[in-house]
Write a structure and sequence with these properties.
Largest sheet of chain A: 9 strands, mixed
Number of strands of chain A: 16
Radius of gyration of chain A: 22 Å
Oligomer: heterodimer
Radius of gyration of chain B: 17 Å
Largest sheet of chain B: 7 strands, mixed
Structural class of chain B: alpha/beta
Shape of chain B: globular
Strand order of the largest sheet of chain B: 1-3-2-4-5-13-12
Number of helices of chain B: 7
Shape of chain A: globular
């Protein structure tokens, strides 16, 4: 069995690529003919497996962790295709192993969707896990965010060495208590990444966004109230102390390191603290070349569609992916509207989430002064209705993304542009941009 | 209780002040229920009245002159947090409802305005009995786009996401009959409940932006109760109509 499954799987992979087929199908084939393939291959890695999960920022954070570890000379396997479920991991492995099924890597860093991660960790126990956040996203899949939190608890409980938790997200932070209560002797080590006090108000959590009050309460208090806990923040391994226009300060090992950042958006930079903490956990007590680590952090570019900057007609065009109210609110905060022409593209396909209620938990006042040029996507009229109720002026409402993009680009010549878009509208916009103009990827 | 008064230059010519009370926005507002409060606030303004938006959370002082009550959905854990406080306000809320105060309760507060919510794990959260309905938690989650027919409000559309299944007693009428989606439960095709001027529904989406007829019913009732008449303005509902047309074409 062993000697045939890998060549056969690789053959299927080659054939399905020739046909332009999906990335996960070869994974399905190898799972069927050799169910132990993934476990066996990953078990051979000297540093084991690290899983990155949570609602927001998995793709960019995983990319950061990989680049941080590579800066220290580690050979890293990752599921780059974005197939963030078990079959996708198996398919990615097929692309990387040699014909005898050997993987030339020290560690696997895997981005896994919350629900799929649960199945994955039942098959392959990760040595490390990084749990980013539990936000109101895809409730059409998960029902309640408390349910999403339980999925992350399960990932943590299967982790053998170290779990890295977001100290500022109460639903994630309290996983530490659950691990301790479950098994006081054998629970994994816990470390946190955190935020400076001064930055907390820029990260509203889901429990802080619904009232008409002047601003969010200090992070955590209302969820803490909801789950009946006293807020007493533990010490963090890495703390994000400051975010500037193009640089940031991180504190670890008792000192503060300032670095330039290619990444934009405070949430991306907070996730850099998460990536740094996981990388430090993986590197353990071994030698760490801190200057190289910080250089790698400075050089990380955003993942596909996540705060990418393109050039269209000689002007910058930024794509900001928005998938949930927290993400949209942070996007509006991180990329101020002044001087930019803005378009918003809202689709409600399965990959976006079918439920539109979240648009009502985003405040759009920051767009009021400059207005929004074009609204598009399947739910363009829902977006128009939302802006109407926030007294934000807008121009064309054109559900067809191709037509809308033409209107937007022709109507805002000579101006930098920004598009807030849901996942499937982002894919459509990238496709169309390549057709109607020369798209140059800047970062 | 916090209050956000609207003082606009037009306040001088206002047809009068209307006070909206949002119930438990801290714990019971997870499916864009803020949208319902915002729509009431803006439409009151567009109709020429002056809105005042109040919030009531656990332990707050309950305001005594409220014109419209709106309450949202939350996680099951949020229902547990508010349950004692809600019981302590039960008599007052029931008096208001019996006297004809307009109210909109969505999802979690719809369930707790009924007789009880028996959770799937076993414990029973008592309701305040304004609505003759009972809710049983199930392992089945009813999720997706919903369209229903209502004789009172025309077609109503929104999105549902609940595992509690509600059945109506003789003391209430359904809000509507579902043509797409599940509604109160997976069996009888009814959605929501109507008692006096209380409108209860599982639909978020949010409900009011795309269903201005319901928003205007609540506002009209509030104005008539307070001032004896309602003189409507002319809100621009073109985008609401277009959003409804698009929503109607979306798959479940």
């Amino acid at each position: 069995m062993l000697s045939f499954s890998v060549p056969l799987g690789k053959l299927v992979r080659t054939l399905s690529r020739l046909r332009g087929g999906g990335s996960a199908f070869p994974g399905l084939v190898v799972e069927k003919i050799d169910p132990g393939f993934m476990q066996r291959t990953l078990a051979s890695l000297p540093h084991g497996v690290a899983v990155v999960s949570g609602t927001n920022g998995k793709t960019t954070t995983t990319k950061m962790v990989v680049e941080l570890l590579e800066s220290q000379g580690l050979r890293v396997f990752t599921n780059r295709t974005g197939s963030n479920f078990t079959r996708g991991v198996a398919a990615s492995l097929l692309g990387e192993v040699d014909w005898r099924g050997r993987l030339d890597a020290d560690i696997a860093i895997l981005e896994l969707d919350e629900a799929h991660a649960v199945h994955f960790v039942n098959k392959v126990q990760p040595r490390f896990s990084l749990l980013l956040n539990v936000l109101r996203d895809q409730l059409d899949r998960f029902g309640e965010i408390d349910k999403t939190a339980r999925l992350l608890e399960h990932i943590a409980s299967k982790t053998t060495d170290t779990v890295v938790l977001n100290r500022e997200d109460p639903r994630v932070a309290r996983i530490a208590n659950i691990l301790q209560a479950a098994d006081a002797l054998h629970h994994p080590n816990v470390r946190y990444f955190g935020l400076d006090e001064s930055l907390r108000s820029t990260f509203p959590n889901d429990d802080d966004m619904r009232t008409s009050g002047s601003g969010p309460s200090p992070s955590g208090t209302s969820v803490a109230a909801a789950v009946g806990e006293v807020v007493d923040l533990p010490a963090a391994d890495v703390v994000l102390r400051r975010v500037g226009a193009q640089d940031a300060d991180f504190e670890f090992d008792g000192r503060t390191v300032s670095t330039e950042m290619k990444l934009r958006g405070v949430y991306n930079i907070f996730n850099a603290a998460a990536a740094l903490s996981l990388a430090r956990a993986v590197l353990g007590t071994g030698p760490v070349d801190t200057p190289k680590l910080v250089k790698a952090l400075a050089d990380v570019a955003p993942a596909f569609g996540r705060g990418e900057s393109l050039t269209v007609d000689g002007q910058p065009l930024e794509l900001v992916l928005v998938k949930n109210p927290s993400g949209f609110r942070l996007g509006l905060k991180s990329f101020p509207a002044g001087g930019y022409a803005t378009m918003i593209a809202i689709n409600d396909n399965y990959a976006d989430g079918r439920d539109m209620s979240w648009l009502w938990d985003v405040e759009f006042e920051s767009l009021r002064a400059d207005g929004v040029e074009v609204l598009t996507g399947v739910r363009a009229y829902d977006m128009a209705l939302r802006l109407q109720y926030d007294d934000v002026p807008f121009g064309a409402v054109e559900p067809d993304i191709t037509a809308a993009l033409r209107l937007f680009i022709n109507g805002s010549r000579g101006k930098p542009k920004r598009i807030f878009c849901t996942y499937t509208s982002m894919l459509a916009i990238r496709r169309e941009l390549a057709k109607i103009t020369i798209v140059e990827v800047v970062s | 209780m916090t209050s956000e008064a609207q003082s606009t230059p037009e306040a001088e010519q206002s047809k009068g002040r209307l006070r909206i009370l949002q119930l438990y926005p801290r714990e019971m507002n997870i499916y864009g229920d803020w949208g319902n409060a915002l729509v009431l606030k803006q439409r009151i303004k567009w109709h020429g009245y002056t809105p005042e938006l109040l919030e009531y959370n656990v332990g707050d002082e309950f305001p005594d002159d409220v014109d419209i009550v709106v309450g949202g959905g939350g996680q099951d854990s949020g229902q547990v947090v508010i349950q004692d406080d809600l019981q302590s306000r039960a008599d007052h809320l029931r008096e208001l409802a019996d006297a004809g105060a307009p109210m909109l309760v969505i999802c979690g507060l719809y369930q707790l305005f009924g007789k009880f919510f028996k959770t799937s794990a076993g414990p029973v959260i008592p309701g305040i009995g304004i609505l003759d309905v009972e809710t049983h938690g199930t392992d089945e989650r009813l999720i997706g786009n919903v369209i229903m027919k209502s004789t009172e409000f025309g077609d109503i559309m929104g999105y549902e996401n609940h595992s509690g299944q509600t059945t109506l007693g003789p003391g209430v009428e359904p809000l509507g009959t579902v043509t797409k989606g599940a509604g109160n439960n997976s069996k009888d095709g009814h959605e929501g409940a109507r008692y006096n001027n209380v409108v209860a529904s599982y639909l978020h989406g949010s409900l009011l932006p795309k269903n201005p007829a319901i928003a205007d019913f609540l506002i009209r009732t509030a104005a008539e109760r307070k001032y004896g008449t309602f003189v409507p303005g002319a809100p621009d509902d073109d985008y609401a109509r277009l959003a409804r047309e698009h929503a109607a074409r979306r798959p479940r």
